[in-house]
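Box S1 | Example of a co-folding query
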Amino acid sequence: MKKHNFSAGPCVLPKEVFIKASEAIIDFNGTGLSLIEMSHRSKDFIAVMDKARALALELLGLEGKGYQALFLQGGASLEFLMVAYNLLEKKAGYLNTGTWSSKALKEARLFGEVVEVGSSKDENFNYIPMGYTIPEGLDYLHLTSNNTIFGTQIKKFPKVDIPLVCDMSSDIFSRQLDFSQFDLIYAGAQKNMGPAGTTLVVVKEDILGKVSRQIPSMLDYKVHISKESMFNTPPVFAVYTSMLTLEWLKNLGGISAIAEINEKKARLLYSEIDLNPLFDGFAKKEDRSIMNATFNLTDAKLKDTFDAMWKEAGINGLNGHRSVGGYRASMYNALSLESVGALVDVMSELERKG
Ligand SMILES: *Cc1c(COP(=O)(O)O)cnc(C)c1O
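Box S1 (continued) | Returned holo structure for pyridoxal-5'-phosphate
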């Protein structure tokens, strides 16, 4: 039986995407070849790459606005340094909202001065800092829109007149934003789009080419743009599967349609966390993520019982990250409202048994 998969990433994808992706492994588009044995320079695969890039811009509402979409390798973790390599001349600002921001900040320090404009480390990253000041003279400001591990999410983005860079690995395509306020967005595929192995980078072309250092070709956004995201052999399966997910999302009605469903899922789970005396939310209420909900049992003695119950209900991937403990329910786009319902049923059943 298919599990209710609350895993933080790699994560659940739409069933039709799993089916189409598996068919393409055997015979892609009736070509008599597997997707993973054919040339990436074939017209069939070029069409996939072009479509994936176009769909990403279309869904974000960034077509014709000077942006390019790239499907690169190395994960979001490589973007931590690529961003700095390409954009950091003297000084950059980073808002430190968790493990991933901290890692991004650490890599950027290899390239120039980094100002931590704000941090929520004092409370183990259970909130989004507010009221921080952004110093003059920054090359860019880097934010992490959704903190996968701690379950917080930025709801209101600062207005700045410098390039705004955002790691959206765990909430891209999940909620409606004015994406044109960002100059560079990156996201590892495996949280809301596809299998691990590719990273979406959406970059406004006019912010590039401003640093004085030499950039190795593979790390140079301009090189990847000029080669239409095919500078070297792309991860064809990860790109194709991501394309299928983006197609699925478009057919569903795009980001506004999925955002409504995501809101419903989050409301259902958070209201159970708030009403059920056996559970406590980890993140500050106003900063709660609609993608990753973090929570604890109020009585640790119930752990074994609760764990056995959710496993029995066919639920997977609910254990919290080791730096937070407790539980984390990741409710990415492809997780159904029914799956959240199954979890809420188990939580209220635990209260009844209490
Ligand atoms: C998972 C995650 C990363 C790391 O992604 P990799 O593709 O494994 O390098 C970075 N940032 C955020 C917000 C994440 O959720």
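The chain has a mean pLDDT of 97. The chain is about 35% helix and 15% strand.
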